[in-house]
Amino acid sequence: MKSLEELKAIRDKMQGQVGLRAESEASTRVVVGMATCGIASGARPVLTALADAVAEKKIPDCAVTQTGCIGLCQYEPIVEVIQPGKEKVTYIKMTPEKALEIVDKHLIRGQVVSEYTIGNQLK
Amino acid sequence: MYRSHVLVCGGTGCTSSGSQAIIDKFEAEIEKNGLKDEVAVVRTGCHGLCALGPIVLIYPEGSFYSMVKVDDVAEIVSEHLLKGRVVTRLLYEETVKEEEVIPLVETGFYKKQKRVALRNCGVINPENIDEYIAVDGYQALAKVLTEMTPEQVIDTLLAAGLRGRGGAGFPTGQKWKLARTLVPDADQKYVCCNADEGDPGAFMDRSVLEGDPHVVLEAMAIAGYTIGANQGYIYVRAEYPIAIQRLQIAIDQARAYGLLGKDIFGTGFDFDIDLRFGAGAFVCGEETALMTSIEGNRGEPRPRPPFPAVKGLFAKPTVLNNVETYANIPRIILNGAEWFASMGTEKSKGTKVFALGGKINNTGLVEVPMGTTLREVIEDIGGGIPNGKKFKAAQTGGPSGGCIPAEHFDIPIDYDNLISIGSMMGSGGLIVMDEDNCMVDIAKFFLEFTVDESCGKCTPCRIGTKRLYETLDKITKGKGTLEDLDKLEELCYYIKANSLCGLGQTAPNPVLSTLRYFKDEYIAHVVEKRCPAGVCKDLLNFSIDKEKCIGCGMCAKQCPAGAISKTDYIAPGKKLPAMAIDSSKCVKCGACMATCKFSAISKK
Questions:
Q1: Domains, chain A, ranges and CATH?
Q2: What is the ipTM of this complex?
Q3: Domain covering B4-104 assigned CATH 3.90.1150.10 in the classification
Q4: Contacts of B214 in chain A (CB under 8 A)
């Protein structure tokens, strides 16, 4: 390594990885239902798609985590987006493609993708 | 890209309670469940709560599993990592309140801590330089080499008020300034790191080396730039195999990246570091003895002056700092002197790491701002004293330090306060003692250590400590006189004033401070021939209360010396004859007392 740029490049590349271990609470939490019902309906590819996209697009203070059964097994895979001061948004019947849309629209631009939310889907 | 990180502690504490097997099992279970590309297993350094090891932390949830067993791993993987259900049953109990999981930083042990020197310990993988770089590693070196003059570095350290963490508390900026300026035409200078942690019960430096080795390398390179040295040596105990292994890995990685070696960052600055192993002699923690040992000679101190800043290693100007001191420096460079000076007390800035040991619930490693009271460290962070016993004293500074009695429980801990009450900061060992500890015995323990470790070069230390030990031994055997106490004190001051190096100059401290605060215990040993704590065997007498004894004979079965036998006496209401101890045969092991269910046996 002969330059500061190289050092910075390594830091930027690795920060997304190690940042996961920050003790401070991430402001945005993306929670994927990963109980038996969720896994059976395909929650795992959704989870990995979300985790990869969040890291790749370097979304700050955002943690992708998993949770158990929410109780709405027929609507799995379920993804919840929880942000401080805002109402929790629940997306249902997720796919990796829909998940990427949520990353782009909701997490980056702050617009709820209302066509996938539980309220609209059940209408 | 991993969505979850499993951090398993690989410090010496957790390694000896089996964390390697836990890591292997995690890797196997994660593979079995097909999570290999989603979950990373990372071996980290020490988290501090050594009493609860092996420790496993899972992020992003921040779940803190303590005392993990190999048999628990399959459940954690299938429940937590696969299905997302935290296994509350296995969490550190302090992180679970009324069914809710609370963050680790909110628990008693971590709440009052402020981790500066230990900031990366338990967070990054110490064997991966990229992770260190991710948490701003080597940024301070880059800043110093490209933006700062050596004088600015010195000014920053002086303004920060950083003092040596090895115990004496000399201002680090001042030390560097002297090494830079005193010999202007030196052809060669050196930077050394004192990692010869020898105080019994102290393991701060080991944990930094094991958990964050690069921070020491980075700070030493900064020191090299500042004083004008291009070679560094880390003098580390051979008894620290994990620390040595990780340091060597770190040095190799830093060299491969060009962060050590020639022309670092293209600035023309050269710096390299080599390891030197200590064979475990306590005196080699003394700076002149340490450098003599690096030179390949027998580790003996030499008179100062000349100080190392003028004539140090190989008779060249040298800076020697302790591991923890170095661990603070990159942060000070990046965050600024004001940030560092905002922590601590007027004359002691920043934080200090303590190794908590002895009669305390949370044995382990804690880092607190200077000025935190002993009470906060022991009661809030350390979780108090086990079995409802009463606090008697805390020993700081190891064999060079002294005891802090209960009357000073609320004293803010910093360099000057500890000296004013007859102890010293030392490297940071903090041993807690309760009412079952005999203070004369404690003083004897430390003197036995210094007698062993005295190098023998100067007479006051070689012979003086031996005489001190003999007098203490005489007192614990009930053969001491009041005159001995006076002689003891006189000899202490003589040794302090006349010894060549820090070892001898501080060796009498455990005696002086116990004499100062616990003279009544000494007098009880000498005049009443009694050990109030019930420790000194020669002064103990075990006896059986014949009215309470039911004659079951359990004590006689336990007695290794065959000192207990039946008498002719049957107490009113009892069916069997009472037992009695023959004190001429008794070895005072206490086995009878521990086994008696009727509290019929007492020691006086």
A1: 24-121 (3.40.30.10)
A2: 0.78
A3: no
A4: none
